[in-house]
């Protein structure tokens, strides 16, 4: 019997490609493209700026493939962006109580997303969506601490197979005007799965259980679905990224 040659270890089998555009954004790309095309016949001097705007809208709604680390005792970043705050805070009222995250203060890791970041958000753990709580509010700069209490926001609570509950919050910002959820209570999700999107600049907060230590530092950039932001029983990473 003829032997089957196997490719040597390290042989590349994946090629780079342009990220897909998330379905939530395709209509906006189509609208921008239509306006750019119309300007060609009406005000052709603004056609090129509108073409660049179309590419910008497409880039905003890009939805790249992510490879999520596998294993126990890890929390995965729910958002692309800059870690701007790591501090112990009182829980938002919506996340308090025995059916939520309890009453004790928790460490909050805040990830700020600029308009240049990917805005598709992902769940930090595998489990069941227990709560999705939407709250209308203001549109302050999402980088401000008070934005977590005053801005439009949406809380998620995910419970894993061992009963661990993780809460994270999508917060709208100055430019963001819509928080979109892809899941509902009762849905099963796996770590790194897409759960929502915030349009045009915003922030995501993650609340760490007491026995989880932050694995990111202030100023560090995270990648949704890939960066490990906290680990159970580990030592906290300290310092400020330069």
UniProtKB/TrEMBL annotation:
Its cofactor is pyruvate. The active site is at 202 (schiff-base intermediate with substrate). One of its GO terms (biological process) is phosphatidylethanolamine biosynthetic process. The keyword Nucleus does not apply. Signal peptide: none annotated. The chain crosses the membrane at residues 28-61. The keyword Lyase applies. It comes from the Bacteria. One of its GO terms (molecular function) is phosphatidylserine decarboxylase activity. It catalyses: a 1,2-diacyl-sn-glycero-3-phospho-L-serine + H(+) = a 1,2-diacyl-sn-glycero-3-phosphoethanolamine + CO2. The modification Pyruvic acid (Ser) is found at residue 202. Is synthesized initially as an inactive proenzyme. Formation of the active enzyme involves a self-maturation process in which the active site pyruvoyl group is generated from an internal serine residue via an autocatalytic post-translational modification. Two non-identical subunits are generated from the proenzyme in this reaction, and the pyruvate is formed at the N-terminus of the alpha chain, which is derived from the carboxyl end of the proenzyme. It is found in: Cell membrane. The record marks 201-202 as: Cleavage (non-hydrolytic). One of its GO terms (cellular component) is plasma membrane. It is a peripheral membrane protein. Binds 1 pyruvoyl group covalently per subunit. Its EC number is 4.1.1.65. Pathway: Phospholipid metabolism; phosphatidylethanolamine biosynthesis; phosphatidylethanolamine from CDP-diacylglycerol: step 2/2. Coiled coil: none annotated. Belongs to the phosphatidylserine decarboxylase family. PSD-A subfamily. Heterodimer of a large membrane-associated beta subunit and a small pyruvoyl-containing alpha subunit. This is Phosphatidylserine decarboxylase proenzyme.
